[in-house]
Amino acid sequence: xxxxxxxxxxxxxxxxxxxxxxxxxxxxxxxxxxxxxxxxxxxxxxxxxxxxxxxxxxxxxxxxxxxxxxxxxxxxxxxxxxxxxxxxxxxxxxxxxxxxxxxxxxxxxxxxxxxxxxxxxxxxxxxxxxxxxxxxxxxxxxxxxxxxxxxxxxxxxxxxxxxxxxxxxxxxxxxxxxxxxxxxxxxxxxxxxxxxxxxxxxxxxxxxxxxxxxxxxxxxxxxxxxxxxxxxxxxxxxxxxxxxxxxxxxxxxxxxxxxxxxxxxxxxxxxxxxxxxxxxxxxxxxxxxxxxxxxxxxxxxxxxxxxxxxxxxxxxxxxxxxxxxxxxxxxxxxxxxxxxxxxxxxxxxxxxxxxxxxxxxxxxxxxxxxxxxxxxxxxxxxxxxxxxxxxxxxxxxxxxxxxxxxxxxxxxxxxxxx
Length: 418
Fold this sequence. Notes:
- By secondary structure, this protein is mostly beta strands.
- About 10% of the residues lie in helices and about 50% in strands.
- A 16-stranded antiparallel beta barrel has the order 1-2-3-4-5-6-7-10-11-12-13-15-16-17-18-19. The protein has a 3-stranded mixed sheet with strand order 9-8-14, with no helix packed on it.
């Protein structure tokens, strides 16, 4: 039976309300700490942001050991797929974050998706819903180590942005599985430069769990398909460099890495991001290129699923696939409380060992959003956005070109609870 709280005194903070808040926070901590299981989303925490506990309950924070955020995004949409318009409402993001510094050297972070499955995966024993659960220690201002479930430290600014604020990822980033168990070694030779060496699991689950039983790799021109064998050491190794120049006006996020998805099946990726960061205008350009011995992104394999079935190859995936992407995005705070976002994307796909799939695909993305921030010191935005996509296929591959359009009216709120 719920207890009733007396709200008669407008400015009076009742004991009942305090108990409800503290009980909720303790319950959330217990629930998710025991669960199995800015894209790093590290930063962009807005130190001047006032928590709900401070605004409503006047609770003063004594330290930085316990911070709670809810990341929530929802919208109404009208979606067009080749002239077929449909409307509806969608809750796109719902993530809980708990993070803090226990001491000046020891810190932790948990980020968990509340609208995903909590089933633990076979490789790392984490749920896919758990984005992050790691502990870090700063041995010196120039040397740190993090361990647990991490975000892979690929480069690029689209990749690094909090997923809540992304209207549409590039296909390459959208298909990446990036939250893996592992360890980071972070070195800062100078204050403005950071180098990260990372070793993680390549996947969250075993090969059969990720690709299905009896998965095969397709050979030249769909003539053969070889059964995949699990790798003995399925790791991903990434080198990441984050640079700041000219008092943070020019920023870089570059990375190169290699991943072992299956026996003798490697993927190599380079991601180069650079951003102009001015007080009222931010503009980045990312370049990404991936070569995949096994089509881990599965963009091409999904495109030709019908051809694979017709060839009678069963549960098979393409080999020797190459993807590239250019992404650029501009944010302009043209008036107090208002932001204009413009974004463009260009991507290609190429399957080198299949004649009809060589340079078979080009895709384009074009996005615009008008964002309004109604409340000072709150990371809340109301937006009206347009998202357009165009997919161009070569005549040889036999696939049909198509376009999509989407209009959204909604809100995004990174709610600082405590």
